Amino acid sequence: MAKDPICGMYVDEKNPPFETKIHDETYYFCSETCLRTFEAPEVELRKLKRLIAFSLALSIPTMVLSFFPILPTISNNVLLFLLATPVQFIVGWRFYKGAIDALKKFTANMDTLIAVGTSAAWIYSTIVTFMPSIFPEEMVYFDTAPLIISLILVGKLLEDIAKGKASEAVRKLMDIQPTMARVIRENKELEVPVERVKKNDIVIVRSGEKIPVDGVIIEGHASIDEKMVTGESMPSEKDVGNEVIGATINKEGLIKVKATKLGQDSALSNIIRLVEEAQQTSAPSQRFADQVSAYFVPAAILIAIFASTSWYFLGSKSFTFALTIFIAVLIVACPCALGIATPTAIMVGTGKGAENGLLIKGGDNLEKIRKLTTIVFDKTGTLTKGEPSVTDVITIEEFDKNKLLTLAAAAEKGSEHPLGQAIIKGAEERGFTIPKLEKFNVIPGHGVKANVDDKEILVGNRKLMIDNTISIDFLENQVSQLEHEGKTAMITAINSKALGIIAVADTLKDHSVDTIKQLQNMGLEVVMLTGDNKRTADTIAKKIGVSRILAEVLPGDKANEIKKLQEEGKFVGMVGDGINDAPALAQADVGIAIGSGSDIAMETGGIVLIKDDLRDVVASIQLSQKTVSKIKQNLFWAFFYNSALIPVGAGALYPFFGILLNPIFAAAAMAFSSVSVVTNSLLLRRFKPKL
Q: Is residue 379 domain-shared with residue 396, that is, in the same domain?
């Protein structure tokens, strides 16, 4: 049996009501509404919003006029009929359609519950209004059906908003790709659209430009910022023979690239495809109400039919008596409380989440996160700040550390390299006045040479020092130790003498360690996922207390790593911030995106941490536990009232006490169950995360 990717209902693959195929994969649907929502989520979302506005515009006056009639009873009932009927059959048509689709397959779903329940209330009220001789009652229930339909549609809107983001996320991914490229053809440099670049074309990329295609460097050296695709905070030094990825940024240097992968074969296109596939195959959790509806609805209808016919044929009661029994059972079985049991708790829960900096996209994510057994954290930009900063300043011969940092910052003033910018930022954060740069020269891949205050300053790696015949043997142990700690060590020399080391590294975010410890105390397995080398990953993992590490993972493989964990039987949550994390966020059972991260990660993640505070991962699990607890309580009360009074509605007490459940009391019981459900949901407002 397949699952409908929209509503979660099970569908017979051999005889499905509806199906469609995308990327050679077939998806099955229980109704045409679910199919349309899957194929065109944005169109269906707009339509749903219009229906809700129309429904509320008629439902609210209907409710007011029911309690405060402005006309004589008969005229007021007719007015209520005119207000309620468009909601019942125009707005509510989607439920009738879903119920009919289910009936064709000899099953029942929530649409069946809603259609039968609201129809019972509407039919009974219509008979009272226009055929008072059959039911000589003055009370009608025209406000019941519109309110049920409106509340259920509002709950559905919350779920559909998240699903409508899929195409927007993919569009934003596509927008990252450069639109133009400079290629060499017939010894001339031409600017052409990226779509016209051919395989093996030579593309020129200057400093500050995006690399338009995947390829191999055939000339030049560059410092490439690959953070938007690989998630790495440190730029990657690229020489002849190294591969480059389209949409990454050439921070420094001039290179010529031979195009190797174009269009659908490019790394970015693969990421887009992975996001599409993971989002489309990620089915929402199956609602408890849907699981029981296949039994509850037919049972209620059969009881109503059996009870009414028994009283008529066996009990020798009048047709009016039998019809009263039938209507009473259907009204008392009306799924008003059942229909709002989940949406009301979800609405309060998501609202409370927003107050606490948690953007939760739809009830499914709020329900599922409590089930997590394993939670995977991306390293760069998630556990760490995602940008290099100065961590150590080491000097020799008692040379002043502040002066060394100040002079190095001055030397880097002419550089656009992120490591140089980190040194400048480090000096500025410490309040140092940076001297004026007199002369500057960048040595690609090695460092910089500059003149500051009549001093020649060199800042860079070992190769820079060796090329300038500067001895660094006495610093080797310290440089190696810093590199072993996962830091980038830049040697600083003044007037041809090495005087110190400035170490730069990506540092941990606030609360990273506390968050990991809390999650582990909750019984969750914590995994760190990164594209970094094993040594750097091990260093960070030791600091935060994570034992399972997935290092050197390529962008396209992150989603595969999540799949492997899921194949181990784990229910996986993924926390990430980068574009390269988007497929993994979509693949995970629950994707949690960092609010300060890329728009793509935020669109793909089911939960967004607006405050960029990792402790909110813990808060989201706690909120999920509280909300699901309320949902279970709500469903209990919904079923308790309806199920307990069905026998009473069927006339079980009449032979003994002469008590026959009047539809008025049936509706009152239904209303009371709804009030209890809403009141119980509102108690979620008292939720405070325990951090």
A: no
SS3 590: strand
What the block records as the tokens of 560 is: 């595969």
Instruction: Reply yes or no on whether 538 is catalytic.
Output: no
The residues near 552 (Cβ < 8 Å, ≥ 6 apart) are 530, 531, 532, 533, 534, 537
**Cα torsion at 475, 481, 483, 486 (round to 10°)?**
-150
Write down the catalytic residue from 378, 557, 589, 612.
Answer: 378
* Domain extent at residue 90: 40-163
H or E, element range at 488? strand 488-494
Residue 86 pLDDT = 94
Question: Regarding beta strands 358-360 and 607-609, do their DSSP bridges make them parallel or antiparallel, or are they unpaired?
Answer: antiparallel
- How many whole angstroms separate alpha carbon 334 and alpha carbon 613? 44
Residues 596 and 556 in one domain: yes
Answer yes or no: do 421 and 369 share one domain: no
Per DSSP bridges, beta strands 202-205 and 180-185 are antiparallel
Residues 500 and 392 in one domain: yes
The residues facing 392 across adjacent strands are 503
* Complete edge-to-edge strand list for the sheet that includes strand 384-395: 384-395, 497-508, 488-494, 455-460, 447-452, 437-443
Assigned token pair, 24: 């050679």
514/501 same-domain check: no
Please provide the distance, in angstroms rounded to a whole number, between the alpha carbons at the two ends of the chain.
Answer: 42
Residue 7 lies in a domain: no
Question: 599, 625, 651: which is the final residue of a domain?
Answer: 625
* pLDDT confidence of residue 294: 58
Is residue 265 a part of any domain in this protein?
Answer: yes
Supply the pLDDT for residue 284.
36
Give the C-alpha separation, 442 to 645, whole Å: 84
Q: Which residues sit opposite 459 in a β-bridge?
A: 448, 492
Give the chain's domain count.
Answer: 4
Going by the DSSP 8-state scheme, the letter that residue 315 receives in this structure is: S
Instruction: Please name the amino acid found at residue 5.
Output: P
Beta bridge partners of 214: 261
Give yes or no: residues 150 and 189 share one domain: no
The reported pLDDT for the residue numbered 674 is 67
| Cα–Cα distance measured from residue 417 to residue 421, given in angstroms and rounded to the nearest whole number | 6
CATH number where 590 lies: 3.40.50.1000
The span from the CA of 594 to the CA of 43, in Å, is 28
Q: How far apart are alpha carbons 586 and 232 in whole angstroms?
A: 20
Distances (CA, A) of 66 to 3, 138, 139, 552: 41, 11, 9, 66
Which residues does the chain have with pLDDT short of 50? 8, 23, 159, 162-167, 169, 274, 278-286, 664
| Residue 666 in domain | no
